[in-house]
Amino acid sequence: MTAVAHYAIIILSTFVLVGGIIGFKKAGSKASLIAGGISSVLLDACFALGFANMQAGFIAALVVTGLLDAFFAKRLMKSKKFMPSGMILLLCLITQALIAAALVTK
Question: Is the entire prediction scored with pTM above 0.90?
Answer without folding.
Answer: yes
